[in-house]
Amino acid sequence: MPWLQIRIHTTPDHVPAFEDTLLECGALVVTFEDVHDDPVYEPDLNTTPLWNHTKVTGLFEADADIEHIRPVVEHKAESLGETNIDLKIEILEDKDWEREWMDNYHPIQFGERLWVCPSWRQVPDANAVTLMLDPGLAFGTGTHPTTALCLQWLDSVDCQDKTIIDYGCGSGILGIAGLLLGAKNMVGIDIDPQAVQATEANAERNNIEPSRIEVKLPPYESDLQADIVVANILAGPLAHLAPTISALVKTNGQLALSGILANQAHDVIDAYKTWFTIDSVVEKEEWVRIVGTKHA
């Protein structure tokens, strides 16, 4: 069946009031979107920042009384001082949303050999190294530039018989890719228990032997030092954790860092230059990957 949706363009300060009003009028769900595609990067802890121009959308059943709802929303706008409210009422046709969602995901190639593929698709290259990964709650599927940068790098280096640590493993995509590319074993570390579960589940989906993978919550108490460490988190945590992450890399081992905006690269490099010779800084869509080799 079709649905009705009401869209309101407003400012961050007025979002909670419009959200409450739409819910009181019977909205099944209320969502927030950015009107002008202004990204919000690395917000402060325990904050939920909104965009300067936010679109608030309330979804209603098809038989909702719009003639009642419209004046209620307009009255709320007047009380907030928004005399020229941008309010739109639209019919949203029903679809097979699961099929629509699945159709949006295709195999993606990273470098020469590596492909990430959802379970319902086939990789077009029979000789590919294929990582099976379904989009879901868990954190990383290769579509974000920072993940892509790390996967491309892993495909370009010699992982054979190496030990790899995926710090901030999320879905485990980077560590599991390393295993499929020949690494001997992998340790995943993440602060989120769901990430631990997701990494273990994705390793099983890719037929990784349990003895080759260990996933832990920090702090990771071990003398293990890896040949390769990848950390795709955010610039602030990367800089703060520099001593911890650096200690996980063997002498002459390699470190790849991402989750970093181009204008943050200098600060992250400064945090790691005590331990590493920086080999390359590669940019993709305003994000960068920093690679270094640990010196004695």
From TrEMBL:
Coiled coil: which residue ranges? none
Q: Which reaction does it catalyse?
A: L-lysyl-[protein] + 3 S-adenosyl-L-methionine = N(6),N(6),N(6)-trimethyl-L-lysyl-[protein] + 3 S-adenosyl-L-homocysteine + 3 H(+)
Task: Quote the cellular component terms of the Gene Ontology held in the record.
Answer: cytosol; ribosome
Tell me where in or outside the cell this protein is found: Cytoplasm
The residues that the entry says bind S-adenosyl-L-methionine are T147, G168, D190, N232
Q: Note the NCBIfam families from the entry.
A: prmA
Q: What is this protein called?
A: Ribosomal protein L11 methyltransferase
Task: State the organism named in the record.
Answer: Marinomonas hwangdonensis
